[in-house]
Write a structure and sequence with these properties.
The protein is mostly helical. It has a domain at 42-104: Winged helix-like DNA-binding domain superfamily/Winged helix DNA-binding domain (Arc Repressor Mutant, subunit A), CATH 1.10.10. 74% of the residues lie in helices and 8% in strands. It is built from 6 helices and 3 strands; from the N terminus they run ααβααββαα. A 3-stranded antiparallel β-sheet has the order 1-3-2.
Amino acid sequence: MSKTSDKRHGIATLAEQLEQDLSGIRRALRKPLDAEVAKGELTGPQMNVMRVVVRSDGISLKDLSQAVNLAHSTVSGIVDRLEKRGMIERRAYAADLRVSSIYPTAVVKEFVRNEIPALRRRPLEEALERVSPAERATIGSAIRLLREILEQK
């Protein structure tokens, strides 16, 4: 093998290992959030509906159905069940009381705003507490450098 081909092989091997390590890091970071979400006992379609509702500033049932790619009647049933659980609420339009928008409740907004970021940070905070200040600085510098290199065009 030539030096160029050895270099490419070495880079490919390192890139593969980094991808595996980053995947493992992502899984570890998701664990606390996944555990908390599991407590809510939401089905996959309910999770998809909640994801869209939380990201939108009020959404009609028609638009929600299109966003999650499910039948209007299916989404209507999901919304009914989530509303009974206090996770979402329907608000009628002032101009036409027959039409409503779907919003996350205050409890859900609070969870998304405050709890999710804390749950995402917790594994990193716990891991960084177990290493020395010098190791924390090295980790921070290496990750920042990798991100900067990846973001370069």
